[in-house]
Write a structure and sequence with these properties.
Elements (H helix, E strand, L loop, with lengths): L1 H12 L6 H20 L5 H15 L5 H10 L5 H6 L2 H14 L4 E7 L6 E8 L4 H11 L4 E8 L4 E8 L8 H16 L5 H12 L12 E5 L7 E8 L4 H11 L2 E11 L2 E10 L8 H14 L5
Antiparallel strand pairs: 1-2, 2-4, 3-4, 3-7, 5-6, 6-8, 7-8
Helix pairs in contact: 3-6, 7-8, 7-9, 7-10, 10-11
Amino acid sequence: MLYLLTVADSISTGPMAWSGWTATILRDFFLKVLNILEKGELATQKIVEAVAEKKNRIVQFASTKREEKELQKIFPIMSPRYFLYTAADDIYHHLKLYNKLGAAEFIWNIEQSKDANRRAVTICAKDRPGLISKIAGVFTLNNIDILNVQVFTWRNDIALDIFNVKPPPDLLFEDEKWKRAKDHLKSALAGELDLTKALKKKISTHGSRKPKFSRKPPQIVVDNTSSSFFTIVEVHTYDFLGLLYSITDALYRCGLNIWVAKIATKVDQVVDVFYVRDLNGQKVNLPEQEEKIKTTIVDMLPKYK
């Protein structure tokens, strides 16, 4: 409508305001903006072609024509970012997991790494505020150390979260540990388990949340310029028991939804990056909003001297 209004305004102004040259420039501009609005910020021609190629590879995994059609129906709900950063065979397995979700709040799949020292926990869930913090809190509650995580949100409000973790202690009873963690997550999502209270009790039992050595204060950056559609929150700090839960719970308390997360831990140093929007789907770019995010996260972290 804005495009048509601009054309009408230019034509009615007179021949000096409208020409073939003006029409071409305006049309090209309109098509580029439309491309971004429809496909997201990652909509350059090169990326569009890469996504299309990956879709073709995924379809080749289908065993029947019916399954092929079903896959193509689901593709539009996925973001270009998800297609770019996820391998084709992984996307295919994620789609099969999604098809099993049904009326359940979440479903997960646990895979063992080749060296048996890691587990990849892929969780497909109905998205909601605080989902990531609840998953992280449940893992901490069950002594499952989180190494890194990738968070993706599909356009139909389905969250696809991939956690790389250390296996729970006592591998002889690993299946029982995972069952207990799954039950805890069900209770947490249903509001029956107070994770904050449970984790405080666990932390007090296992000692201080502070690292062994004195470190400089955490650095928190709220970036509203690098992305057109998201506020990016970066947290640079040192690892401690319940760190990811503390940060994601702070974001939840600020009324933010996490759409993409990149979590990286090297030795004891952590860099967590979150792409967030408020509950209305907007960026949070007012100075007081940015300050609230920073102070809320700081308040959830250990105090350094």
